[in-house]
Amino acid sequence: MNTRIIECVPNFSEGRDKTVIKAITDAIESVEGVKLLDVDPGEATNRTVVTFVGSPEAVVEAAFQGVKRASELIDMSRHHGAHPRMGATDVLPLIPVAGVTLEECAELARELGKRIADELEIPVYSYEAAAFTPERKNLAVCRKGEYEGLSERLGRGADGADFGDRPFDDKVARTGATAVGARDFLIAVNFNLNTTSTRRANAIAFDVREKGRPKREGGKPNGKPMKDADGNVIMLPGTLKGTKAIGWFIDEYGIAQVSMNITDINVTPLHVAFDEVCRAAAARGIRVTGTEIVGLVPKRTLIDAGRYFLHKQQRSSGIAEEEILRMAVKSMGLDELAPFNPRDKVVEYMIEPEKKNQLTDMTCAGFAYETASESPAPGGGSISAYMGALAAALGTMVANLSAHKAGWDERWEEFSNYADGGQMLLTHLLNLVDEDTAAFNRIMSALQMPKSTPEELAARAEALETATLYATQVPLRTMEAAADVFPLLKAMAENGNPASVSDAGVGALAARSAVLGAELNVKINAAGLKDRDTAQRLVSWAAEISARAIEAELRVLEIVNSKIK
Question: Which residues are catalytic?
Answer without folding.
Answer: 83, 436
